[in-house]
Amino acid sequence: MNNVKNRTPPRINASIKKDYVSAADYLRYEHRWSCDECTHFDSVGERCTLGYESSHHRLAEQTRSFVLSGKMAFCRFHEID
Ligand code: SF4
User: Fold this and answer.
1) Domain enclosing residue 41, as ranges
2) Is residue 43 part of a domain?
3) More confident residue, 5 or 26
4) Is residue 9 a part of any domain in this protein?
5) Structural contact between residues 31 and 68, judged by C-beta atoms closer than 8 angstroms
6) Can you spell out the DSSP letters for 37-79?
């Protein structure tokens, strides 16, 4: 009966999965995996034309996340021409 009271409240915001990136790989490869390099990104409107939330996949945010945690969020729908 009291189990309902002891449950962790649901998240207000959806979590996003971030992957570890080795520092050696980060330095070795050109950063081409952000929205800013993606075919589906509208650079004028600064939005994803597929309708996905792009804030976690922008170059500045990926760089910030890597510097702070060694991890970054990758979009599974990223495409380069
Ligand atoms: S598909 Fe993914 S990487 Fe490409 S613009 Fe949309 S959110 Fe960004």
Assistant:
1) 16-72
2) yes
3) 26
4) no
5) no
6) G-TTEETTTTEETT----GGGSHHHHHHHHHHHSEE---TT--
Distance 3 CA to ligand 1 centre (A): 41
Asked if residue 65 lies in contact with residue 73, where contact means CB atoms within 8 angstroms, the answer is yes
Instruction: Say whether pTM exceeds 0.70.
Output: yes
CA of 65 to the centre of ligand 1 (A): 17
Structure-block tokens of residue 21: 């990136």
Q: Which of 27, 42, 6, 3 is nearest to 58 (CA)?
A: 42
**Taking residues 64-81, what's their average pLDDT?**
95
Strand partners, 19: 72
Closest residue (by CA) to atom 4 of ligand 1? Answer: 78
Report how far ligand 1's centroid is from the alpha carbon of 76 (Å): 8
